[in-house]
Design brief:
- Helix content is 44%, strand content 15%.
- It is an alpha/beta fold.
- The strands form four sheets. It has a four-stranded mixed β-sheet, with helices on both faces.
- Helix 5 crosses helix 12 (269-284).
Length: 442
């Protein structure tokens, strides 16, 4: 079998066999296939696409290119959640503890954030003492004890994806839906969970810019899960404004604590999305029989404080100082040298937000990375004070910047202001949830 023949076959629009796809993924992971041939192959995929069966085969080949985590020692149905990225997206820190408080099992592995704010791991590391690197035996022990843990991925998880992901970024092959789907699903499947809830973002702060593309990606990932025997649900949610009001690391932990403490209105976008994701996790985990029962269980866990208690237990189990994870002390993690309000330059309605630019403004203050070597300042970022559709005047604070290093303050302020569109008429309502994709293979 020769790589050049497989490139020609895919360039001609023909389907590859399972054996051929495994040859490509494993050969590239082992360094036997050079970058230039893999680049040509991925470009052929961009132009010719892949069938669902091919994409599932590629997913499994990538999954088995390295370690595959065995979670069979953990009791119950293990349910994972994955977001395709966004701004102010702190759902994991809310729904993991909530689902565990209802009797579910959440054994989650996450990667580092690059760009915007940090990822879930960076948010957790804003809590003093918390260790996201845990031995696998300890990880399983924590989940069995309290029902939830979030740790970093093992070093050899899906090496084929790591190499392909790096190459896609420099060969203009990032936008291929089959390549995106196989990348996401290979990591989720290798992490060992029995069921997966996918939060597929769409809008100005997401990779998928149109609902049509988001639906294609969501459907493909659900189909892949079905083909390989996993229960998968994909929820398409709006990312045309930050999901939560906080954009930062400790700030987003504070957001999570406020949701779990019942301080966030049920009409708030972050609350709405968290409840929908958690509902589907309880259903896939066989903890609740229907949506109504799941919602009642989650509401009770919120009202009773059981969800917040689970977050405190998880933090303590992973070495963190859980005393900070209370409404009374969480502000201590968000202390900065200056808090600077930002005001609009005209009166009108908020007609649009470029969520990616809002995330970039927080990154400029030190809340995110431009390169993997960058060090995050956990306390900095910004707090939004307005949502889409709000009427503002020149005296209305749009946000407050949390600042320790003022080197890029002016640049961050201008970046934020460029993200806010103000018009004369109130915009039409845009729902937070656009669609829910469930198993659709016959």
């Amino acid at each position: 079998m020769r790589m050049v023949d497989l490139i020609e076959k895919k360039s001609g629009g023909l389907e590859l066999t399972n054996e051929e796809i495994r040859f490509v993924a494993n050969g590239f992971a082992r360094g036997e296939i050079p970058d230039y041939q893999m680049s040509a192959f991925m470009m052929a995929v961009v132009h010719r696409g892949m069938s669902d069966r091919e994409t599932a085969d590629l997913t499994m080949a990538m999954m088995h290119s390295g370690d595959v985590v065995d979670l069979s020692e953990i009791r119950g149905v293990k349910v994972d959640k994955h977001s395709t990225g966004g701004v102010g997206d702190t759902t994991t820190l809310v729904i993991g503890p909530l689902v565990a408080a209802c009797g579910g099992t959440v054994a989650k592995m996450s990667g580092r954030g690059l760009g915007h704010t940090g990822g879930t791991l960076d948010k957790l590391e804003s809590i003093p003492g918390l260790l996201i690197e845990q031995p696998m035996d300890r990880f399983k022990e924590i989940v069995n004890d309290i029902g939830v843990a979030v740790i970093g991925q093992t070093g050899n998880l899906v090496p084929a994806d790591k190499k392909m992901y790096a190459l896609r970024d420099v060969t203009s092959t990032v936008s291929s839906i089959p390549l995106i789907a196989s990348s996401v699903m290979s990591k989720k499947l290798a992490a060992g969970s029995d069921a997966i809830v996918l939060d597929v973002k769409v809008g100005s702060g997401a990779f998928m810019q149109t609902i049509e593309d988001a639906r294609k990606l969501a459907t493909l990932m659900v189909n892949i899960g079905t083909l390989v025997g996993r229960e998968v649900v994909a929820i398409i949610t709006d990312m045309n404004q930050p999901l939560g009001l906080a954009v930062g690391n400790a700030l987003e932990v504070r957001d999570a604590v406020e949701v779990l403490s019942g301080k966030v209105a049920e009409t708030d976008p972050l609350y709405e999305v968290c409840m929908l994701l958690a509902t589907n996790m309880l259903l896939l985990g066989k903890v609740a029989g229907d949506e109504k029962e799941a919602r009642e269980m989650l509401a009770n866990a919120m009202r009773s404080g059981a969800g917040l208690q689970k977050l405190q237990q998880m933090v303590a189990a992973q070495g963190g100082e859980a005393a900070y994870i209370t409404p009374e002390r969480i502000d201590e993690l968000c202390q900065v040298q200056r808090k600077i309000p930002v005001y609009p330059r005209r009166t009108g309605y908020i007609t649009g937000m470029r969520a990616e630019r809002i995330g970039t403004a927080a990154q400029m203050l030190g809340a995110g990375r431009e390169t993997k070597a960058d060090i995050i300042d956990p306390a900095v970022g910004l707090m939004m004070h307005v949502r889409l559709g709000a009427r503002v005047t020149c005296d209305t604070a749009l946000c407050t910047l949390y600042v320790n290093d003022e080197k890029r303050l002016a640049e961050a302020t201008e970046m934020f202001l460029s993200a806010i569109e103000i018009g004369e008429e109130k915009p039409d309502y845009v729902p937070m949830v656009h669609d829910i994709i469930r198993k659709c293979l016959s």
